[in-house]
């Protein structure tokens, strides 16, 4: 239950008689209860893969199996919940109506749906706005109601396309907590994102795609290692002749910047000199450079 197998997908679009190869043997598996991040530069084939998983478009070759069932069958579709990147809802609907509409698409009994809709509106802090038309919602509120609509039928697998882009810090915490909670209950979560800290925070694994196929699969620890280029060490005092550059932040507060492989020696040195370390902060590589490193092998 909640298992996904994406098997050797190929997809070509035709634009003005020219062929665009969107997928070139895209293959990966998602285990039950896993939070898997889907990362890749623009045009890598993420949206095309998601659309094929949801049977919104068809692959030229290959298959997607949801718990062993072909994703083109309605039986498979029912197990999935989906939140698009820019939800375009019938904006005259209220938040409550939207959830009821989504529930009706999955054939949920009206009374059950009503109860579930109110529960979700409460969880996503939309109770006050429940009877307001969605067109009057802020971007964050639209994303919240979109998330709620995607899980109203208690799907086994949740697919989210850039779920946290444009959310404020409180909204992001809410989404991350919700994703963790669902994963703890055994829901499989697959989401695309460009936001490295979010991915590091919640994903158990990340797959990186480029040119229509997987180029790397990384565990959370591996991605933390890969994205860290060095550290900033915050200390209480300056020590001369250590070969280190102490930058004064204020009285009794200095920072030292170092490369990833220097950290252990520097900490030993500071310990020896009885320097107090207040904090050690990783310096992060930006996404473009990570893609560059991984895709130019
Ligand atoms: N409907 C379409 N018609 C023609 N070409 C398309 C279509 N959809 C996608 N493509 C092309 O297929 C390739 C993969 O696009 P896709 O949208 O799947 O990538 P993506 O990884 O989701 O990109 P982004 O991060 O920009 O959303 C790109 O070259 C894109 O231009």
UniProtKB/TrEMBL annotation:
Q: Domain ABC transporter: where?
A: 4-236
UniProt keyword ATP-binding present: yes
What is an example of a GO molecular function annotated in this UniProt entry? Answer: ATP hydrolysis activity
Q: Which organism is it from?
A: Deferribacter desulfuricans (strain DSM 14783 / JCM 11476 / NBRC 101012 / SSM1)
The lineage, from the top, is: Bacteria, Pseudomonadati, Deferribacterota, Deferribacteres, Deferribacterales
Query: Which keywords belong to this entry?
Result: ATP-binding, Nucleotide-binding, Transport
Under which name does UniProt file this protein? ABC transporter, ATP-binding protein
Q: Which chain regions cross the lipid bilayer? A: none
Does RNA-binding show up as a keyword for this record? no
């Amino acid at each position: 239950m909640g298992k996904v197998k994406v098997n050797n997908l190929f997809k070509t679009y035709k634009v003005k008689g020219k062929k665009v190869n969107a997928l070139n043997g895209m293959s990966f598996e998602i285990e039950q209860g896993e939070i898997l991040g889907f990362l890749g530069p623009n045009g890598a084939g993420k949206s095309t893969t998601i659309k094929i998983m949801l049977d919104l478009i068809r692959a030229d070759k290959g298959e997607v199996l949801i718990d062993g069932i072909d994703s083109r069958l309605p039986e498979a579709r029912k197990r999935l919940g989906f939140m698009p990147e820019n939800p375009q809802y019938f904006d005259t609907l209220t938040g409550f109506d939207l959830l009821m509409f989504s529930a009706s698409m999955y054939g949920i009994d009206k009374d059950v749906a009503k109860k579930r809709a109110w529960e979700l509106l409460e969880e996503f802090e939309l109770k006050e706005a429940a009877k307001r038309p969605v067109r009057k919602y802020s971007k964050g509120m639209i994303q919240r109601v979109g998330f709620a609509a995607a899980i109203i039928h208690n799907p086994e697998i949740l697919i989210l396309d850039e779920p946290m882009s444009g959310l404020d810090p409180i909204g992001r915490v809410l989404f991350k907590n919700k994703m963790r909670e669902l994963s703890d209950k055994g829901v499989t979560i697959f989401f695309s994102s460009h936001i490295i800290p979010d991915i590091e925070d919640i994903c158990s694994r990340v797959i990186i795609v480029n040119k229509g196929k997987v180029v790397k699969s990384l565990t959370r620890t591996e991605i933390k290692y890969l994205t860290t280029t060095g550290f900033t060490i915050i200390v209480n005092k300056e020590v001369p002749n250590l070969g280190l550059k102490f930058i004064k932040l204020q009285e009794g507060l200095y920072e030292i910047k170092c490369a990833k492989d220097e950290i252990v020696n520097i900490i030993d040195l500071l310990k020896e000199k009885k320097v107090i370390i207040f904090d050690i902060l990783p310096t992060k590589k930006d996404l473009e450079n990570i893609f560059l490193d991984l895709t130019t092998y």
